[in-house]
Amino acid sequence: MDLVIAKKDLLRLVARCQGVADKKSAMPALANVLLSAEGNVLRVAATDLYLAVTGQATAEVAKAGSVAVPAKDLLERVKMMPDGPVQIVAKDGAQTTLKAVGSPRRYTIHGMPGTDFPALPQPSPDAPSLELPIDVLSTLIARTHFSISTDETRAHVNSALFEWAGERVRMVTTDGHRLSKMEITVGGTNATATMLIPLKAVNELRRLADESRAEKEVPAVRITQSGPNAFFSIAGMQFSVKLVDAQFPPYQQVIPSVTDRSVRAPRSAFSDALKAVALAASDRTGGVKLAMTAGTLRITSESPESGNGFDEVPVDYAGPDLTIGFNAKYFLDVLAAIDDDEVILGISGELDPAVLRPGTESAEQSYVAVVMPMRI
Questions:
Q1: DSSP of 156-195, one letter per residue?
Q2: Could you report the per-residue pLDDT of 322-376, keeping only the tens digit for each?
Q3: pTM (global) more than 0.70
Q4: Which end of the chain is more exposed for a tag (fewer CB within 10 A), N or C?
């Protein structure tokens, strides 16, 4: 294999792929990225057998071929190349030389033949697909990703539920202590899809979507569900994921349809007060008490190790007094995800979950978060 490619294009491809490469796998090939040259194109790919990502860029290919090289090593060396063209030469299907054109700087990397790299999944030609604005995908993930369970032994909640029904798309996540649900209307579509996307894939999708938005690239993502896999085409990159084969909890039963008390609070002031009081909360529980009285929300924490914390926020509330305990971090995650100036906090009783919504909502967007109470 022998080719020349612009450093910026090579760096972009390798950086986007190396996050998927599995450096801890017992299979050495999975720590590599696959470089494949054919025609006037260089393709770069990585997989951990559950996720896979592929991208391509224009290159001057003198000799077609493929080679797999360690992802981390390649990324570090490409970063150190001077701006301009970079030549990649692979001999004997393994040893690879990286050279800056017009400069003496070069590296040799020990790789393996491209034929030793695992085959990447491909969607069926007749698999149904749909298009989603990239901003919509970013919003769905940003509003819900924090409440995905990190417990990999509980696959049904170590994932995000993605549903598409007609013109309505939604993402729902829960870890058993809290739940987030974001819904957005996408006009001009009429599709049906349900998939459980694992946490690692959600994080990679978030990164790819944010990068493409920052670079003002293609404004849409094409989503294809084919067999056990889902494929996302974003800004010239194809990202595939093996979907979770499990039953997501019945989230509709968790979200209270009504609450007895409603508190309208300034989001920024509420968040600042929570952060301040949480500093003095118990390291073990992170618990704080919210005490609602007419016009005021008082926040307190007690810790036998570090003492107490107190603050209060003026709010729009005229109901009876009520005190209830929560994990402060759960509230802070939701408040950070909402961009409205105000939030509405709905609570029924001391043992009932809290419901958080933005202060204003439209017919096009709907967001709700549920946080379970705790005894303090």
A1: TTSEEEEEEEETEEEEEEE-SSEEEEEEEE-TT--EEEEE
A2: 999 999 999 999 999 999 999 999 999 999 999 999 999 888 999 999 999 998 7
A3: yes
A4: C
